[in-house]
Amino acid sequence: MSNAPRLTSLDALHRSLGATMTDFAGWDMPLRYTSERDEHHAVRTKAGLFDLSHMGEITVTGPQAAALLDYALVGNIGGVATGRARYTMICREDGGILDDLIVYRLGDTEYMVVANASNAQTVLDALTERAEGFDAAVRDDRDAYALIAVQGPESPGILGSLTDADLDGLKYYAGLPGTVAGVPALIARTGYTGEDGFELFVEPRHAEALWRALTEAGAPAGLVPCGLSCRDTLRLEAGMPLYGHELTTSLTPFDAGLGRVVKFEKEGDFVGRKALEAAAERAAANPPRRLVGLVARGRRVPRAGMTVVAGGEAVGEVTSGAPSPTLGKPLAMAYVDAAHAGPGTEGVGVDVRGTHEPYEVVALPFYKRRK
Amino acid sequence: MSNPQQLRYSKEHEWLSAAEDGVSTVGITEHAANALGDVVYVQLPEVGDTVTAGETCGELESTKSVSDLYSPVTGEIVEANQDVVDDPSLVNSAPFEGGWLFKVRVAQEPEDLLSAAEYTDFAS
């Protein structure tokens, strides 16, 4: 097997734009085109264009597609209306999180599951295995789609100039088939930036034409191409978890503070139910470490894996950290003992290479857009 | 990118100006600044510190990572650039000018500093 990185259908375009490329989950992806700070601000104030073709699409079809997903995932997927999307998770039998997912219901008996690039194979394997006995088919559609996201307050206007689709009628976490710049696309009002925006699933052969059309239509509004570096600071400011950082197989959704995605009330058994019921009881009786926001009082940047300290004791661990272009200060997400997790708790620091730097504990998210 | 002719360079991507009254100015190259990405925090040696050629004397932190800052020469720090501490983005926007890092009274230079042409080859 080759270890060569996988390339998206926009690879040549990224290189022609002078992107700095990076390995991400086996894919060669744009890290940034110019300055990640400028790209970040463009998404917050105007618009940014992302290639997310490394995300893993899995199509589930058949009379029992909903039943299979209700069994395989922790969410109530049968309850999702056609044209809507749901944030959910897939867990192991022991409750550990295998991945967080967005599931789009495309039709009565058709769903698209979007997995993180790093977990796409794991999710595909788990769904395939869990499909046994269900009248449903699990199809690997990773090569069937390129994914382009246009994110930011100007994105509805930019996209609207290229499509007849009813964007006003398209709610957050909904998706509909349409045509954008002459290209057939699944148009979804989803994203990972904390801004309004759209994700466009298209055939890879159409990706470059779509990218160019969006670039041209968006230029007057200030749209710029954006890399994964600013995507990470955008999602951090928005308090959104990232698999491998805030979410891992060693945590249940309840340990991650996301117990609300687990729907015990749905009919029938689902993988992990028993372990998750126990995790929910444990979390209620004895709160686990809580995911909180930390805002630096100084300028040194907390990084994943650094220890959160209070009174000389370790009380938690940083899961993500970066300088925030919007707030102008370093920020972190961290799991912290409940005793130190309340917003405004005094005396919390992060051990930054031997120095205890002071931090303020805040509730997430750090940034919320005005609606 | 062009590396100024009048400077000399280390393999750790610092530049060193010709000494005036025994004092040289040190910064990091444009190549290094581009590789780091947006620099957000700079920790410099303090005036009076003794630095040693090839050893760490500070930190450069960018959005994604932390890098050690090395001194290209041995000597005593006579000035640290407070402007760059206040505005680390100078390292990206003007690495050979306003983004200089410190001035050092040179006691000893290593023999393997590179010319502009040699560094351009080395960094490419």
UniProtKB/TrEMBL annotation, chain A:
Residues 289-368 form the Aminomethyltransferase C-terminal domain. It catalyses: N(6)-[(R)-S(8)-aminomethyldihydrolipoyl]-L-lysyl-[protein] + (6S)-5,6,7,8-tetrahydrofolate = N(6)-[(R)-dihydrolipoyl]-L-lysyl-[protein] + (6R)-5,10-methylene-5,6,7,8-tetrahydrofolate + NH4(+). Its EC number is 2.1.2.10. The keyword Transferase applies. InterPro entries: GcvT (IPR006223), GcvT/YgfZ/DmdA (IPR028896), GcvT/YgfZ_C (IPR029043), GcvT_bac (IPR022903), GcvT_C (IPR013977), GCVT_N (IPR006222), TrmE/GcvT-like (IPR027266). Keywords: Aminotransferase, Transferase. Residues 12-266 form the GCVT N-terminal domain. Belongs to the GcvT family. The glycine cleavage system is composed of four proteins: P, T, L and H. The glycine cleavage system catalyzes the degradation of glycine. This is Aminomethyltransferase. It comes from Streptomyces spongiicola.
UniProtKB/TrEMBL annotation, chain B:
Its cofactor is (R)-lipoate. Binds 1 lipoyl cofactor covalently. GO terms for cellular component: cytosol; glycine cleavage complex. It holds the Pfam family GCV_H. Keywords: Lipoyl. The glycine cleavage system is composed of four proteins: P, T, L and H. The glycine cleavage system catalyzes the degradation of glycine. The H protein shuttles the methylamine group of glycine from the P protein to the T protein. Belongs to the GcvH family. This is Glycine cleavage system H protein. It comes from Streptomyces pacificus.
